[in-house]
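[Discussion] Sanity-checking designs against the backbone

I'm trying to build intuition for which residues belong where. Below is a C-alpha cell string of 137 positions. I'd appreciate it if someone posts a full sequence so I can compare it with mine line by line.
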C-alpha cells in the first residue's frame, strides 16, 4: 500500500498520467474476422491466377472417406471443381489431372516417384540371381 505524504493530493498525478496516455500513439485494434492484408486471396475469383501452375513435389492430396481432394494452401478442392480457369479432372493419391483450354495435363504428386505393381517374390529372387550371375546386365 502506497503511503502519501500529508497534504499531497493524487489529482496532479492522475491528470499527468491521463495527459501522457492521450499523447502517446495508440495502435488501432484489428478486426479478427478480416484476414490480414498479406493473406492474398479473398474470394473465389482470386483463388488462383489463370493457368494454375502445380509443381511435382509441391502438391498435397487428402483422402477422406475414399475420396481424394487437392489441397492448395488452406483450401480443399474436389474432383470436378474449378481453380481459376483450370478444372480438376481427376485426383488420385499419386497424380492430379488438370484440364485447361481443352488440354489435359497430368501432374505427379511426388517428384521422381513412380507407382507400379510389385513383382511376385519368386520373380524378384530369380531376377536378383540373374543380376548377380551377370553383372553386365
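Best answer:
Here's mine. Compare freely.
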Amino acid at each position: 500500500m502506497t503511503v502519501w505524504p500529508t497534504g499531497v493530493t493524487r489529482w496532479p498525478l492522475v491528470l499527468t498520467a491521463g495527459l501522457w496516455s492521450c499523447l502517446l500513439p495508440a495502435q488501432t485494434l484489428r478486426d479478427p474476422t478480416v484476414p490480414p492484408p498479406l493473406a492474398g486471396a479473398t474470394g473465389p475469383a482470386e483463388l488462383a491466377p489463370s493457368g494454375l501452375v502445380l509443381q511435382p513435389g509441391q502438391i498435397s492430396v487428402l483422402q477422406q472417406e475414399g475420396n481424394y481432394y487437392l489441397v492448395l494452401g488452406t483450401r480443399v478442392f474436389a474432383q470436378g471443381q474449378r481453380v481459376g480457369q483450370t478444372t480438376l479432372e481427376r485426383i488420385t493419391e499419386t497424380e492430379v489431372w488438370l484440364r485447361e483450354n481443352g488440354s489435359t495435363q497430368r501432374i505427379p504428386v511426388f517428384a521422381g516417384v513412380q507407382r507400379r505393381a510389385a513383382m511376385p517374390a519368386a520373380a524378384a529372387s530369380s531376377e536378383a540371381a540373374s543380376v548377380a550371375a551377370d553383372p553386365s546386365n
